[in-house]
Amino acid sequence: MNLESPKVTVEKSAEYLYTQLSDIRNFEKLMPENIAKFEVLGDDIFNFGLKGMPEIKLRLKEGVPHSKVILNAASDKLPFTLVANIDAVSENSSEVKLDFEGEFNPMMAMMIKGPISKFIETLALNMPKL
C-alpha cells in the first residue's frame, strides 16, 4: 500500500528542514492534536500513540542530506516506511511531501488506509511548525 501526503510549501531552507526532521524529537511538533502518547526511546527511535490506534515505534533509518529522511516501523507487526521528500524551491523555501509504503494484507490495508492517509496529511500540514 502506497500513500502520499499533499505537497506542502514551507518557508524554510531544505537544509533546515532536513536537520529538523533528522532529529526525531521534532516529530512531536508534527503530531496531530489527538496524540495520546509521544516518547523518545533513543537517538533514532520514538514511540507514539493516537487515540483509538495502537502505539507505533518509528526508527530513523537513513537520510540523504537536504532532500530525504527515511523512517521505518521498528516492529514487524506493521512493516512500513515513511519517507519525507524535501525539494528546495529557493534559498528560504522548500516543498515537503511524505510517502508511506507498507506491506499489508487486503483487510488490514482497508482498515488503516483512511487513518494513515489523514495522519501523514497532518504531519505534512504541520511542517511549518518546525
UniProtKB/TrEMBL annotation:
Protein name (database record): SRPBCC family protein
Stored CDD domains: SRPBCC
Lineage of the species this protein comes from: Bacteria, Pseudomonadati, Bacteroidota, Flavobacteriia, Flavobacteriales
